[in-house]
């Protein structure tokens, strides 16, 4: 299957990328009130203020951007530049990494296929999927070209892992829990990364970079650069997540896991770096006793993360289908 990044300029949208009408971004220009924007949390502010802002944003949006987070511009810029250079490599140099084998620690693929009862369509993207932490055990699996790729990825992966742990401690404190409650086996499944490359699209109204979905890990840390394309669901409508310089976007299922999607554009390529911090597959997931009361009983049954992962894959990341499988249904 031809990589989108192998073609310098796309003059038309091939049929296999044209989404069904009901899955197109038809309401791209019909967003919520433009004054509704994703919260931006300054991690350099007072600790209690930061905690309050994170909990508030988690409950209202499920997404928030963080600035003054301690990850240097240089670390982010060096890896983003190296990743863009990888996609720009000649086709023959990328070919050895091309694979649809999900077990590989590093692989290059194109699209992802959207399938329903009537058709099969492809998303407008190429992507790298890789295991990136702990980096010292994985570095030899990463490509040697471009020259800066391995070193810049190792530095970026460590910095993002540290940022993720910091935010999880703040969330735990905000919920009145021990700061380490979300660490240990809940982040012991390793950190996976998707580096998404969305080339300029000749007709964005026909395509999707990614259809609406929710993330499955404990925490997602996203660098979207300076090109818009990410949209989040807020009160049943879509809002644009406008890029903030040197900001990371955080999503999590601890408070509110929100649907989001990626749209395409005709002006510029977009590169997003998505780091997902995963629980161990045999982690036992259930509502924390400290958060369960007679007034707020458990809404979901206990399960292993492995079971959730299988359900997520089977449902193609459809939020309601996955939640229905684990929700405790009232007898009435």
What would your notes on this structure say?
Keywords: Iron, Metal-binding, Oxidoreductase. Belongs to the iron/ascorbate-dependent oxidoreductase family. It comes from Digitaria exilis. It contains seven helices and 16 strands. With 332 residues, the protein is an alpha+beta fold. The protein folds into two domains: 31-280, Jelly Rolls (Sandwich); 292-332, no CATH class. It has an eight-stranded mixed beta sheet with strand order 1-2-12-9-14-7-6-3. Helix 1 packs across helix 5 and helix 2 (73-87) packs across helix 5. The longest helix has 26 residues, at 149-174. The radius of gyration is 20 Å and the shape is globular. The mean pLDDT is 86.
Topology:
Layout: E1 40-42, H1 47-60, E2 63-67, H2 73-87, H3 91-94, E3 106-110, E4 113-115, E5 120-122, E6 126-133, H4 135-138, H5 149-174, E7 191-198, E8 210-213, E9 219-223, E10 230-234, E11 237-240, E12 248-252, E13 260-262, E14 270-277, E15 284-285, E16 303-304, H6 305-314, H7 319-326
Brief synopsis:
InterPro entries: DIOX_N (IPR026992), IPNS-like_FE2OG_OXY (IPR044861), IPNS-like_sf (IPR027443), Oxoglu/Fe-dep_dioxygenase_dom (IPR005123), Plant_2OG-oxidoreductases (IPR050295). The protein is an alpha+beta fold and 332 residues long.
Q: Which key terms come to mind for this protein?
A:
Jelly Rolls; eight-stranded mixed beta sheet; four-stranded antiparallel beta sheet; 7 helices; 16 strands; oxidoreductase; IPNS-like_FE2OG_OXY
Mean pLDDT across every amino acid position: 86
Shape: globular
Supply Rg: 20 Å
Low-pLDDT regions: none
Q: Tell me the number of strands.
A: 16
| CATH architecture descriptor text of the largest domain | Sandwich
Reading off the top of the CATH hierarchy, the class of the largest domain is best stated as Mainly Beta
**Oligomer, anyone?**
single chain
Determine the fraction of residues in helical runs and give it as a percent range: 10-25%
Structural class: alpha+beta
Identify the strand order in the major beta sheet: 1-2-12-9-14-7-6-3
Distance between the termini: 51 Å
Family: Belongs to the iron/ascorbate-dependent oxidoreductase family.
Keywords: Iron, Metal-binding, Oxidoreductase
InterPro entries: DIOX_N, IPNS-like_FE2OG_OXY, IPNS-like_sf, Oxoglu/Fe-dep_dioxygenase_dom, Plant_2OG-oxidoreductases
GO molecular function: metal ion binding; oxidoreductase activity
């Amino acid at each position: 299957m031809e990589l989108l990044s192998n073609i310098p300029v796309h003059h038309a949208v091939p049929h296999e990328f044209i989404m069904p009408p009901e899955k197109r971004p038809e309401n791209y220009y019909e967003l919520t009130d433009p004054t509704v924007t994703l919260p931006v949390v300054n991690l350099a502010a007072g600790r209690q203020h930061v905690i309050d802002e994170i909990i508030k944003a988690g409950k209202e949006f499920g997404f928030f951007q963080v600035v003054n987070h301690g990850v240097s511009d240089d670390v982010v810029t060096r890896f983003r530049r190296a990743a863009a250079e990888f996609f720009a490599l000649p086709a023959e140099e990328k070919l050895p990494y091309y694979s649809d084998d999900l077990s590989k620690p590093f692989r290059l693929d194109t699209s992802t296929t959207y399938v329903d009862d009537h058709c099969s369509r492809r998303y407008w993207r190429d992507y790298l999927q890789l295991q990136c932490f702990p980096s010292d055990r994985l570095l030899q699996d990463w490509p040697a070209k471009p020259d800066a790729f391995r070193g810049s990825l190792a530095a970026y992966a460590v910095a993002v892992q540290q940022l993720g742990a910091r935010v999880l401690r703040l969330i735990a404190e905000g919920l009145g829990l021990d700061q380490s409650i979300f660490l240990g086996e809940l982040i012991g499944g390793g950190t996976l990364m998707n580096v998404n490359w969305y080339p300029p699209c000749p007709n964005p109204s026909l395509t999707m970079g990614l259809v609406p979905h929710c993330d499955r890990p404990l925490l997602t840390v996203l660098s979207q650069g300076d090109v818009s394309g990410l949209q989040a669901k807020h009160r049943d409508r879509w809002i644009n997540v406008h890029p903030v310089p040197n900001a990371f976007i955080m999503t999590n299922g601890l408070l509110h896991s929100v649907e989001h999607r990626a749209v395409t554009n005709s002006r510029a390529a977009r590169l997003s770096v998505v780091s997902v911090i995963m629980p161990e597959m045999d982690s036992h997931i259930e509502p924390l006793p400290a958060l369960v009361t007679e007034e707020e009983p458990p809404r979901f049954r206990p399960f292993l993360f492995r079971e959730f992962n299988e359900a997520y894959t089977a449902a193609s990341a459809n939020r309601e289908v996955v939640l229905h499988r684990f929700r405790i249904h009232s007898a009435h």
